[in-house]
Amino acid sequence: MNPPLVEVMRGNAVESIHRGAIAVVDADGTVLASLGDIERPIFPRSAVKVLQALPLVASGAADQLGLGDDELAIACASHGGEEIHAQTAARMLAKAGLDADALECGAHWPSLDTATRQMAARGQAPSALNNNCSGKHAGFLCLACAMHGSGPNLRQYAKGYVGAEHPVMREVTAALQATTGFDLVGTARGTDGCSIPTYAIPLRHLALAFARVATGIGLSRDHAGAARRLRAAVAKAPYMVAGSGRFDTRVMEHFGERVFCKVGAEAVYCAALPERGLGVAIKVDDGNTARAAEVAMAAAIEALVSMNDADVDFMRDFSAPTLRNWNGIEVGALRAADALRSALAR
Amino acid sequence: MNPPLVEVMRGNAVESIHRGAIAVVDADGTVLASLGDIERPIFPRSAVKVLQALPLVASGAADQLGLGDDELAIACASHGGEEIHAQTAARMLAKAGLDADALECGAHWPSLDTATRQMAARGQAPSALNNNCSGKHAGFLCLACAMHGSGPNLRQYAKGYVGAEHPVMREVTAALQATTGFDLVGTARGTDGCSIPTYAIPLRHLALAFARVATGIGLSRDHAGAARRLRAAVAKAPYMVAGSGRFDTRVMEHFGERVFCKVGAEAVYCAALPERGLGVAIKVDDGNTARAAEVAMAAAIEALVSMNDADVDFMRDFSAPTLRNWNGIEVGALRAADALRSALAR
Questions:
Q1: How many other CB atoms are found less than 10 A from the CB of residue A66?
Q2: Are B170 and B140 contacting, i.e. CB atoms less than 8 angstroms apart?
Q3: Surface of B (139-198) touching A: CB under 8 A
Q4: CB-based burial of residue B13 (10 Å sphere; 0-12 exposed, 13-18 middle, 19+ buried)?
Q5: pLDDT digits (tens, 9 = 90+) for B247-288
Q6: Is A125 an 8 Å CB contact of chain B?
Q7: A14, A8 in Cβ contact below 8 A?
Q8: Is-above-0.80 flag for pTM?
């Protein structure tokens, strides 16, 4: 049973509690810090989008299609579905000679509430471009373009790209397997929110993959170059990877290439910390992403990234945010549990 | 450490898990079933609104102001902020000679997404009437009207009614103390989302209060009559207590007076089951209301209410809902953990 990672305070009392596990690993696979069960395979969901985007660059697709930083960043994104995100995904698709009809991620209203209300006020309905995964899927379709060529049959070739046996998804899964070093053939498989397969992988292996992304050590030359380019692209276009008010965007706007972090559904969080060559992987047992996984990741960044006073001030909003009610009255706070702080301090 | 109550499946694997505790108690205070720690005080939040509404009826305010079933029901509600909810709360306030300016709950966009998008499409901004607690607060103001009289100074008298020391809130807290039988003076106190105090109370006492609401046993004559009337009002106007698509509304539309259930923030759930004279109280440790507390309460209703085949079919959507992704593909399911089923079967 996993220990508490994050506590929710109301007044002076603990109102709710989030248990989970965290692994901090270097590129040699050494576990430098951990808490909870880091060997149990968990579905990493969207936290591994940067690993799934490696073939987009490694295949040469990004160069062939002239993808820029914003496009590479959104290929690694769970974005807020804002206008600029939808436009960027559409532009990628156009470069591959495709449009939103080729997307197989499904449509949903923007994750960002204000974007939803703006669309509703304009009488618009959401499309697959507003799906938080539209950039990742546009990346898959760009990869399809590189694998098949941009001829008139591309649309037909790409059809069903979300399926585990499609050549595009095989490439994506191979990158996941190579970077994590975990056998995906024998592990549990589920279907993700955007219809691609998600494979259960232990936190220790996920953290290893992100240490490899941070350093290039243990990756093929192509993957190492792709990882470097994707990290640089996200550092230059952090708004694309999440959006207004979001943890990943704000933290990467602040730290640039010093932190690459990516949230996933059901409270998975992964990070690559190049300065110390570390990878971090977190899973909160109950799947609470917005407050639990974020506070845990903030605590990890605080412990593992060298910080000046301004950095420390900046991170406090994420690692110990105040909770206010509808009248703006302070009613409580989130905080990293002592067990998590202690594990990270080792 | 509390055992699992609800599991989240993706494919055939458990993706996330929700721990917590449940108490099933009769009006004599006998614990008929339980799981986890039912003695630790927890903040009951909105799950106890029916207890907080007892003075509205017991004081004679409801009769003096001619409140109908829909108005009494919304006094016990965490509603979706739909137009009909806002109108009903406004009508209550008008009966007390007040308007939305007297509400101290704060404003927020409707909890129901479609209601938010409709308001945005019309260019409207939310008011305190859309706050999920506006009916409860309108009830407090009707109580203020009865306590002070409807004269020109009512607005001044009512000001600050959300404060623990205000005469109105003292009445509300006294009802909470009387029905739960728990000393609220010495317990932890927090501020709720709508700015009123919330007092930490053990699940065993919360379940006892709801067994008393179910039966009238152990309540003062005034409270017993008020509880009967509020239960009947909610059974006649279940849309008012929650709204479109919501668990409480759908379940009480189906079962009528056979089930009174009320959700609260941070995954608290209470129910009164008059047929067997039982009270139920649930708290999920991690505060996940929408999927964890609801599935746990559905399992409790299945186990504790006598059901025909149609009832069983109806409840399956709540106790074992299928999870679908943005393409409508079945990706998993929620289920009550074995430990919960076993505890309830005793």
A1: 8
A2: no
A3: 188-195, 198
A4: middle
A5: 999 999 999 999 999 999 999 999 999 999 999 999 999 999
A6: no
A7: yes
A8: yes
Q: Do A287 and B288 touch (CB under 8 A)?
A: yes
B331 touches chain A (CB under 8 A): yes
Instruction: Check B121 against A121: CB less than 8 A apart.
Output: yes
pLDDT tens readout for residues A156-165 = 999 999 999 9
Q: How many CB atoms lie within 10 A of CB A237?
A: 21
DSSP for B229-271? Answer: HHHHHHHH-HHHHS-TT-HHHHHHHHHGGG-EEEEETTTEEEE
State the ipTM, two decimals: 0.95
A180 CB contacts (<8 Å, ≥6 apart)? A51, A201, A205, A206, A208, A209
Find, among B40, B123, B103, B1, the residue nearest to A15 by Cα.
B40
Instruction: List A residues 204-263 in contact with B (Cβ-Cβ < 8 A).
Output: none
Which tokens go with B23?
């108490």
Q: In the 3-class helix/strand/coil scheme, how is A32-88 assigned residue by residue?
A: EEEECCCCCEECCHHHHHHHHCHHHHHCCHHHHCCCCHHHHHHHCCCCCCCHHHHHH
CB contact under 8 A, B190 and A121: no
Whether residue B335 lies within 8 A of chain A, CB to CB, comes out as no
In this complex, which of B106, B113, B329 lies closest to A195 when CB atoms are compared? B329
Residues 6+ apart with CB under 8 A from B167: B147
CA atoms within 13 A on the CB side of B262: 32
B120 closest CB neighbour out of A121, A192, A198: A121
**What is chain B's length?**
346
C-alpha–C-alpha distance, residues A179 and A18, integer Å = 29
In the block, which residue shows the tokens 């069960």? A37
CA distance A144 to A65: 12
- Comparing CA positions, the residue from A315, A310, A312, A278 lying closest to residue A295 is A315
Contact A292 B285 (CB under 8 A): no
Q: For B298, phi and psi rounded to 5 degrees? A: -60, -40
Query: B106: which chain A residues are within 8 Å (Cβ-Cβ)?
Result: 325-328
Q: Do residues B20 and B285 lie in contact, with contact meaning Cβ atoms separated by under 8 Å?
A: yes
